Amino acid sequence: MRSPSEIKRVIEGRLRSYLSRDRTGIRREVLRLFVKTKAITIAELVAILQKQFTVTFHAIASMVGIIASRIGILRATRNPDGVNSYELKEKYVDIVTRIVSSA
C-alpha cells in the first residue's frame, strides 16, 4: 500500500504529464477554475471558458472526466436535478495550486 506522500508524488507526476500536452492553455485554465471555485458544473465551466477559448460542452466534459478518473483529483456530486458538480479534493489543492501557478 502506498503512503500518502507517495500518492501525492504520483498525482503530481500525472498532473505535470497532463499539462505538458496543453497547447492552448485550456487545461491549465480548467484547473485554475477548480482551485478558485468550491464546486462547479460542466455547463458553468463551458460558459466561463467560452469567453477566452473556442470550446464545446463535450470537449470540456471529456477533460473533466480525465481529470477526475485518470488523475483522480476531483470529487463528483450529483444535485437533486441530476446535474453533476465537480470539486477539487481538499488534499490536492496545494499541489494543483503550485503546478498551475508555475509556468
Strand content: 5-15%
Largest sheet: 3 strands, antiparallel
Tell me how many strands there are.
3
Low-confidence stretches: none
Mean pLDDT: 94
Strand order of the largest sheet: 1-3-2
| Rg from Cα | 14 Å
Question: Can you give a write-up of this model?
Answer:
- The protein is mainly alpha-helical and 103 residues long.
- It is 58% helix and 12% strand.
- It has five helices and three strands.
- The chain has helices spanning 4-20, 26-36, 42-49, 57-71, 93-101; strands at residues 40-41, 74-78, 84-88.
- A three-stranded antiparallel beta sheet has the order 1-3-2.
- The model has no long low-confidence stretch (mean pLDDT 94).
Indicate the topology.
Layout: H1 4-20, H2 26-36, E1 40-41, H3 42-49, H4 57-71, E2 74-78, E3 84-88, H5 93-101
Antiparallel strand pairs: 1-3, 2-3
Helix pairs in contact: 2-5, 3-4
Summarize the structure.
The chain has 103 residues and is mainly α. The protein has 5 helices and 3 strands. A hairpin with a 5-residue loop joins strand 2 and strand 3.
What attributes characterize this protein structure?
globular, mainly alpha, single chain, 103 residues
